[in-house]
Design brief:
Shape: globular
Number of domains: 2
Largest sheet: 6 strands, parallel
Number of helices: 11
Strand content: 15-25%
Radius of gyration: 19 Å
CATH topology of the largest domain: Rossmann fold
CATH architecture of the largest domain: 3-Layer(aba) Sandwich
Structural class: alpha/beta
Order of helices and strands: EHEHEHHEHHHEHEHHHEEE
Strand order of the largest sheet: 1-4-3-2-5-6
Amino acid sequence: MKIIERVDKLRDFVAPLRKQGKSIGLVPTMGALHAGHLSLVERARRENDIVVVSVFLNPTQFNNPDDLKTYPRTAEADAALLEQAGADVAFMPTVGEMYPEPDKRVFELGPVMEVMEGKMRPGHFNGVCQVVSKLFEMSQATRAYFGEKDFQQIAVIRAMVEQMQTPIEIVTCPVVREDDGLARSSRNVRLTPETRRAAPAIFGTLKASLEFAKHHTLRQTHDWVVATINAWPEMEVEYFDIVDGRTLQSLANWDDSDYVVGCITVYCGDVREIDNITYFRC
């Protein structure tokens, strides 16, 4: 596996491969890799000739400086994991390499980036679009792989790709969970023993709400999920929104959409956990 730190070196690596007609799979990450990331790498390995994994903690998508400061940094361990997983390239640039000048681009993608995470983290998705669009161009990837835990992020990236007419396929992969149901996340290492014991109740409650929803209204289901999770002293729901899975706009009734997804963010102590569940999709 090659470790590439410079943009020009990455371009030099991929250019002849694309001329040969080889497919390139890109897995964008911010490092602190876990089994969820590796499942994306393995999927990309099966579906492409070359696999490029970016490991870059992107500052422009952090609206909270403390979150950036406390985000785990494990570059050496990440490189070892990627080599074991069969990546061809680990692209590990510095901030100065990715942003030799400030990126002043503003992405206007409409309501899909304004709700939920977009509302709670102003500027977050603009930063995501800045870095992801750069990675798409630098890697010349055929396909890019994202985990469904970041459900809204995928919708935003799809909208960006459509707007920019970027010739790339966006591939979504299932959420990878611990044995107790907690969605794998780099931030999980910051959970205390107490919050780690409580955190699986997030997905446990979402799963239970599938049955609850069969006999209750959408609003009743929403309120039950929030109350059930908030009953844990270690946790507080920041938002729970039941939305159309394509537009991400809030729904009032179950029959307002044929693709209904519940998206949630919960503070477990000071660690922010996100998750989602699909109620039905036709």
